[in-house]
Write a structure and sequence with these properties.
The protein is built from two helices and five strands; from the N terminus they run H-H-E-E-E-E-E. Helix 1 runs antiparallel to helix 2. The protein is globular. The protein binds zinc ion.
């Protein structure tokens, strides 16, 4: 493994965040399960590597258990209960709660 000190740590995180945003919009624009699932695994991989956590709710969620994109009405159920979102995965039945502190300004 050669080390040629050509790493720009600064830009990496910004690039990673941008890549995640791009992936998120790709996921929302696509209905194809294959694309959705590969985008999901990429998001998880980038997030893990760079320590980026998704904040808020962007119209979809990722099942922590089976690592699939959860799209309400397609493979997940979304419920709103006392200001928090409850998303249940129809594949593995895992329930995820978001909020109530995810208000966006
Ligand atoms: Zn699941």
């Amino acid at each position: 493994m050669p080390r040629n000190g050509r790493s720009s740590t600064h830009n990496k995180k910004a690039t990673a965040i941008k890549a995640m945003k791009d992936l998120e919009s790709t996921m929302l624009a696509n209905q194809d399960t294959t694309i959705l699932n590969s985008a999901t695994s990429l998001i998880l991989r980038i997030g893990k590597r760079h320590g980026i956590r998704k904040s808020g709710y962007f119209g979809f969620s990722i099942c922590r258990k089976c690592k699939k994109a959860l799209i309400p009405g397609r493979n997940s159920r979304l419920r709103i209960r006392s200001k928090s979102l409850k998303i249940s995965c129809s594949d593995c039945k895992a329930v995820r709660t978001l909020g109530p502190s995810f208000a966006r300004d």
